[in-house]
Amino acid sequence: MTNIPVTTWSLEQTAPTDRLPAAVPEGEVRIVRSEVPSPEFSRFLYTSVGGDIRWTDRLGWTYARWQEHLGRPGVETWVAHDRGTPAGYVELDPQDDGVVEIVYFGLLPAFRGRRIGGHLLSYGAARAWDLADRWPGLARTKRVWLHTCSLDGEHAMDNYLRRGFKLFDTKVEEEAELAAADPWPGAYRA
After folding, report:
1. 99 three-class SS
2. Whether the predicted pLDDT of 83 surpasses 70
3. What three-state secondary structure class fits 17?
4. Count of alpha carbons within 13 Å of 72, Cβ hemisphere only?
5. In whole angstroms, what is the distance from residue 32 CA to residue 40 CA?
6. What InterPro entries does the annotation carry (predicted)?
7. Which of 19, 32, 125, 167 is paired with 10 by a 20 to 30 Å CA distance?
8. How far is CA 147 from each of CA 8, 103, 125, rounded to the nearest angstrom?
């Protein structure tokens, strides 16, 4: 197996005023919280968004592991729908001391390039900042952070910067080169 260098960038917002909204895309795009923890739906989003950009860390999760994760207080999944069809999602995960991580964010390949991503990221960051309003007992959000890497979409870093995230760490590590995990042969090829 071949190793390749992968650069990981960590970015943050340290105040709600750091968030820079994006234009609302044209058409019937709605963002809705998936309030019922659903391992099936969350795994669908994870594999559909991350398959072609090599998201692999959750592929081995059992149903019980998904359920445990999604049932934790403050873990939220916000889903963008284009005319009723899931187009992408953002997953929030509260951590200690008022820190919220945007653990996953992205669009299904068919919805990329339609200006949905900037809107979804801005909306997701706003929901990270007001997370404690929906979850009594959670600390008020003091910091929102995320990471992206050189395997992610070509516009990912620009989108994060345009939404007001600031770079705070960069790492380069060798990782095994993995093939994209298509949900079926040829799924990501036009």
Report:
1. strand
2. yes
3. helix
4. 16
5. 17
6. Acyl_CoA_acyltransferase, GNAT_dom
7. 32
8. 7, 8, 13
pLDDT band at 96; cut points 50, 70, 90: very high
Long-range contacts of 63-70 (CB under 8 A, 24+ apart): 63/39, 66/39, 66/42, 67/37, 67/39, 70/37, 70/38, 70/39, 70/42
- Classify each residue of 79-99 as buried b or exposed e, where b means 16 or more C-beta atoms within 10 Å of its C-beta: bbbbeeebbbbbbbbbeeeeb
**Cα Rg for the chain, rounded, in angstroms?**
16
**Cα separation, 56 vs 44, whole angstroms:** 13
CA distances from 92 to 21, 33, 86, 129 (A): 18, 11, 17, 10
Q: Which two tokens stand for residue 157?
A: 């870093």
What is the model's pLDDT at position 185?
56
